[in-house]
Structures are given as structure tokens and as C-alpha cells.
Amino acid sequence: MENMSSLNEHLRQLEEQLLKPEIRTAPADIEKLLADDFFEFGSSGNVWYKKDCIGENGISVREMTLHDFHIHPLSTDVVLTTYRVEDKTRMQHTLRSSIWKFNDGRWQIFFHQGTRTKS
User: Fold this and answer.
1) DSSP category for residue 18
2) Stated pTM of the model
3) How far is Cα 38 from Cα 53, in angstroms, rounded to an integer?
4) How crowded is residue 77: how many other Cβ atoms within 10 Å of its Cβ?
5) Four-point Cα dihedral 113, 26, 104, 1, nearest 10
């Protein structure tokens, strides 16, 4: 496993990529970041799977910023990330968590959950 500081920075960058409009609208980029068995419990209450995220339009685009990012290693190749997101488009704040797995030489997101909070 990478050292904690570089792993923290690397996974933060990957999480931030998933918030960027140019990534969210590029199915090929989403395909690389999401594990084949990816699923999400969305802040909307919906459950999403990889196939729902890689259609021709990708994922919905919003103006979002990430704060309070932390990693919690679960094993040598599995890490839980936790953070907060401010969604300026929907005027909403969420707590987020993701499970990342190291697959075929790269980190991929396996699970994600968003929970609405008060600002």
C-alpha cells in the first residue's frame, strides 16, 4: 500500500474527479473509475449501479465541492473514504462515504453512499 499521505491525496483526487462535470459526462472516464460491481445508495434514496452511470450522458452535472476528506484503510487493497460535499446546484450538503478497491493496478470505487445533512 502507498504511504498514507500519498494514498490520502490520490484517493481525494479520484473522489474530486467524480465531482467534475467533464468526468461525469464522459462515460469512458466513469468506466475506468467505477468497479464492475459498483453500487451506490444515493442521497435521493435511490440505489444506483455502474450500468446506470455509464449511459451516453454519464452522471448528472452539478457544482460541488469536497471538504473534510479522510481515509480509513480496511486492508492492504481496500480503503474507506469519508468526506462532506456542498452541492451548490441543489443547495444541499451531504456526508459521503466510499469504498475503494485496488484492482488491476489502479484504485476503483466499489461502493458509495451520500446522506443529506443540514448545512
Assistant:
1) T
2) 0.88
3) 10
4) 12
5) -60
Helix/strand/coil for 105: coil
Nearest to 38 by CA among 116, 101, 83: 101
- 46-65 per-position pLDDT tens digit: 898 988 877 666 667 677 78
- State the DSSP H helix or E strand holding residue 11, giving kind and residue range, or none if neither: helix 4-17
C-alpha cell, 93: 450538503
What is the arrangement of strands in the sheet containing 47-49, beginning at the earlier edge strand? 47-49, 34-41, 106-117, 92-103, 78-87, 64-75
Confirm if 81 and 89 have CB atoms less than 8 A apart.
no
Three-state SS at 57: coil
